Amino acid sequence: MESLEKAGLAVNYNKVSSTRPKSLPERVHIWDETLRDGEQTPGVALTIDEKIEIAKMLDEVGASIVAVGFPAVSEGEANAVAAIAKEGLTNASVAAPARAVKTDIDACLKADVSEVPIFIATSDFRLKYQLQMTREEMLARLTECIEYGTDHGLVIDYIAEDSTRSDMDFLCKAYKAAIDAGADKICVADTVGFVRPSVMKYIMQQIKKGLSSDSKYKVPIAVHCHNDFGLANANTLAAIEEGASFAHVCVNGYGERAGNAAFEEVVMALEELHNVNTGIDTEKLYNLSRLVERHFMIPLPLHKAISGDNAFTHSSGIHSHGQLTHSMTYEPISPSEVGRRREFHLGKFVGRHFVEYLLKMGGVTATEKQAREIANRVKKTHEEQKKRQTKESFDKIKSKLKNLRTGVSEREFWAIVFEVI
Ligand code: MN
C-alpha cells in the first residue's frame, strides 16, 4: 500500500514530530489476555482444544505474553493451562495469573507456566471492603508472594488492581515493594474503566516520578484497561504515549462487563497512527479475530473496527466511486494490511459510476442511459424490499443470541442447591 507520505497527496499529522509523544516507546509488546480476562466474558467457556488453538494462533501472530487461563479457578481450568504450557509456545511467554495467595501460585507452579502476574488491589476502598486488610498487611502479603514465586524460578509481574482509584503515594510504594521483592514488570490497571485518557497520562507521569528515586525501579510498565466508558483503547494508547511498553489486550475487545482494550484495534492504532512496532503480523489479524469469535460464540458487531463485516465495505455511490479513483479516498489503510479485502454493497446508495465499473469488470458495454437505469432499479429494489420481513429476521436473531450465553440458569442453580443441601 502506498503510504500517505509517499503519495505526497495527503498530510499525515500523525507523523509530525511535534505531535509525537515524547515518552512513546519504540517497541510495544502485546500481552494477550483473551484466554483469561477475555474468557471472563459472561457466558463464555472454552474447551481445552479451543484454548490450545487460540494460544497457538496468538503465538503465531506475534503476542509477547499469552495469559492462558487462571489455574486457581477450577481443576478443569488448571488442566487447560497445564496442557497449553506442555504444548509450549514458540515465541510468547506462557503466563497465568495468581491472587496474592500462595495456593494460587502453587496452582501456577503445578501447571508449569513460566510467568505469573500476581494481582492485589491498592485502592483503600478494596483493601477495606474486598480484602479487609490494612495497607501494611497488603504490602507484607505482596512481598511474601512475589518472593515465593521468584524463589521457585517464576517470572513474576505485579498488577495493582484498581490502580487508577488508588492513592498515588501508596500505589508507588506498592510498586516499589513489588520490584524490591523481584517483580519483573508492573502493571497499571484501570479495573473498572474509570479514567479519561488525559487522566491516564497524568497517572503514568506520577508513577514514573514516584519510581524515579532509584534506577532499579525503572522496570517495564504494562497497562490493563476496561471499556466501561468505551475508552479502553484510548486509555491504553494514552498510557503507552507516557511510556507503558506492554499492552494488555483481548481479541475483539472481549472481557468482563464491557470488555477490555481490543487486540486488533490497539495493534493497528500503534502500527499505523503511532508508527510503533508491536511485533505483530498484522495480515493475520482478521483470521485471529474470526477464530476467537467462532470459539467464543459472541458475534461481532458488523461495524466493528478492523474485523467487523462492514469495516472495509463501501455502500454509498460517492464512496464506491471514490474508491475506484484512489483507494485512499475512503479508507485509512488498505484492507490487505489486516488480511482482508475491500467489498462493495449494492443498494439504495449505489451510483452510476459504480454500475459502469461493475459492467466493465463483467465485460458488458452499456450506454450512460442504460447504466443510470440499472442504478435506479438497484436503488428501487433495495428500497422496496419488505422491511417487515427483515424486521422479523432481526427479532429472531436477537432472541436466538440469548441461547449463545452458556452457563447455569437460576433454575439449574437451585436444583444444584437442593441436591447439595
Ligand atoms: Mn480485567
> What is the number of independent domains?
2
N-end to C-end Cα span: 65 Å
CATH class call of the largest domain: Alpha Beta
CATH architecture of the largest domain: Alpha-Beta Barrel
Report on the structure:
The protein has 421 residues and is of the alpha/beta class. It has 2 domains: 18-296, TIM Barrel (Alpha-Beta Barrel), CATH 3.20.20.70; 313-388, no CATH class. It has helices at 4-7, 48-61, 75-87, 102-111, 124-131, 135-151, 168-181, 197-210, 232-241, 263-273, 285-296, 317-325, 352-361, 368-384, 387-401, 410-420; strands at 29-32, 65-67, 93-95, 98-99, 115-121, 155-161, 185-190, 221-225, 246-249, 313-314, 343-344. The strands form 2 sheets. Strands 3-2-1-9-8-7-6-5-4 form a 9-stranded parallel β-sheet. Strands 10-11 form a two-stranded parallel ribbon. Helix 2 (48-61) crosses helix 3 (75-87), helix 6 packs parallel to helix 7 and helix 12 packs across helix 13 (352-361). It is globular. The mean pLDDT is 93. It binds manganese (II) ion. Manganese (II) ion is lined by residues 37, 224, 226, 256. Manganese (II) ion binds at residues 37, 224, 226, 256.
